[in-house]
Amino acid sequence: MEVVPLHKHLEYTEKCVQILNTYWPRSTAAREHSLAKSCDHMPISLAFIMKPSEVIGYSRISSVQGIKNACLIESVIIEESLRGKGLGRILMKLTEDFAKSRLGIKSVYLSTLDQEGFYSKLGYVPCKPVISLGDNADKVSKEMLQKFARLQLDLELNGTNKTEEQENQLTAQENSHTKHNSVTQPDSSQDSFIPPPPPLPAPKPTAHSYSRAVLRLNPEKVVWMKKDI
């Protein structure tokens, strides 16, 4: 088993698209466009190969802004029919080894919604969020990257908890919104009164309904983890 850079093995692109879209559905064109950004630096898309021409998984290594010799491992996935056989552990190890040997990475970050236990067994520990621009890092100016680096430092120093002032502002906004949207009910003693129908229940969000970009910065929805390699 091995991982290979997708941009050097374009013949594996179609299978990687299929595997990714079983869990994170996107249009084929959008997925291919994202995978086409793989390069020798970062981001790097890796195809997980069991034997020649058999792709069984995928992972991606992206840069982390403001932290030297660090990367973000994301989109780790095994083909659905092969899950539960320990292949995810192997894929993570191969991805870490690739990052260390090819890119000189010393610290690996990731985010997860519900797999904290799995990653803990691999040596990852909870940490503060990091900033990764993923595919868009090459489009950002040096000055903007420096701003992201300062923001990363603020996250490390101050954490992500809301201040009391922020909490009060949020509460005030919610109260104002509730007051604005409230409806004054007519006197129920009037014969013509017809009570309004109850509001439809809001759809329950699922893990896949959230944008990953939003989740990365929302400590209430995602667990950030780190491992030194």
From TrEMBL:
Taxonomic superkingdom: Eukaryota
Biased composition (Pro residues): 194-204
Domain N-acetyltransferase: 1-149
GO molecular function, one term: acetyl-CoA binding
Name of the featured protein: N-acetyltransferase 6-like isoform X1
GO cellular component, one term: cytoplasm
Skewed-composition ranges (Polar residues): 168-192
Pfam families: Acetyltransf_1
Origin species: Biomphalaria pfeifferi
UniProt cross-references to PROSITE patterns, sorted A to Z: GNAT
SUPFAM superfamilies associated with the record: Acyl-CoA N-acyltransferases (Nat)
Matching InterPro entries: Acyl_CoA_acyltransferase, GNAT_dom, NAA80
Gene3D superfamilies noted in UniProt: 3.40.630.30
Start and end residues of each stretch annotated as Disordered: 163-208
